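Task card 7
Instruction: Convert sequence to C-alpha cells.
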Amino acid sequence: MSSTELRRTALDATHRALGATMTDFAGWDMPLRYGSERDEHVAVRTRAGLFDLSHMGEITVTGPQAADLLNYALVGNIGSVKPGRARYTMICREDGGILDDLIVYRLGEAEATSSHYMVVANASNAQVVLDALTERAAGFDAEVRDDRDAYALLAVQGPESPAIVKSLTDADLDGLKYYAGLPGTVAGVPALIARTGYTGEDGFELFVKPEHAVELWRALTEAGEGAGLVPCGLSCRDTLRLEAGMPLYGHELTTELTPFDAGLGRVVKFEKEGDFVGRAALTEAASRAEQNPPRVLVGLVAEGRRVPRAGYRVVAGGEVVGEVTSGAPSPTLGKPIAMAYVDPAHAVPGTEGVGVDIRGSHEPYEVVALPFYKRQK
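Output:
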C-alpha cells in the first residue's frame, strides 16, 4: 500500500453497497453518511444506529508488569482496574500536553500471573500512542503489540440497542455495567462486548476479528429491522458526541493543553505509586489551575441560525474572551450549538452579552452547562 492510499475497513464493500458517502478520516476511507445525517442522528437518539469504528487503534499490553507499565505511561491508575472493567484516561507528554485520550480495558482473569490490557486510541493518534507506549515500555516486563489489524469494531448505539444485541447473544448484558466488557458470542461470532460509547446513549461496542465483520453487520442489521436500526456514519457521530458534551481530540483536547486546562484534571491520579510521564509538569499545572483558573469548556446555544465553527472567536463587550472548539446544528435542540473555551468570568451559565464572531458579525449565544443533552435513564 502506498503512503497516499487510504486504509479500508473489512466493511468497505458493505458501505459502498449501501451508497455511503465516503471520506478520508485519519488515513482511513470511512462512511460519512448513508443518507441524511440528521435522520441518522435522530435514529440513535430515539431508536438505534449501527456504526463501523474499525479505524480506532487497538494496542494490546500484556505481561507480569503490564499494569506497572500503563501506570507509568498513562496519567490514570490502571493498576486499580478490575478484570472485565474499562477506564477513560489520557496519555501525556513529559510537559503535560495531551497526546490522546484513551479507553483501557482490562481483559482476562484476576488470578492470572500475566495481566492483559487493551488500549483503544483515536485513529488519528494510534501510531503516536503506539510509539509512546513502546518507548515507555523499556525496563518493564511487558509487551506492547500493535493490534490495529487484529480487530474490526462495530458499535450499536441508542435506546433499542440492548434489545437488539440481546436477541443475538446469551451473554449477561443486564449485568454488564457501563465501562465494562466481557467476552461472548454475538450472532455466533466471538466478540469482546463492551458497554461503552460516544453518543450519549446506551449501547455496545463489539470487537471482533475482521473476517467476521460483514457477517456480524448483517446479523445486527436484520435483528434491528423491527426496532428502526439504521447504519450511521461519522458525521452524525460528531453531532451526537457534541450534544453529549464529549471532547474530541484535535478540538477540545490537544498537545497544547494539559488535562487541567481541559477541565479533566480528575483523570490524573497523583495518588498512585511511583512516577509517571508528565507527573512534575502536571503537578505544576494543577497548582497553576487552582491559583489562576484556566479558560473553562462551556456550551453555547445560538439565538439565531448561524453555525459556529472551530476556531471562531467568542466575544463579549468588544473583547475576545474565548474560542470555539466544535460547532454544529443540533438536531435534538433544533438550534446551532458549540463547545468553547472561555474566560472564567464569562463561563457561568446564563452569562449575558456573549457572542461568536462569525465572519465579522457578532452573533448572540447563550452560555449553558455541558452536556447539551442527557439521556433519561
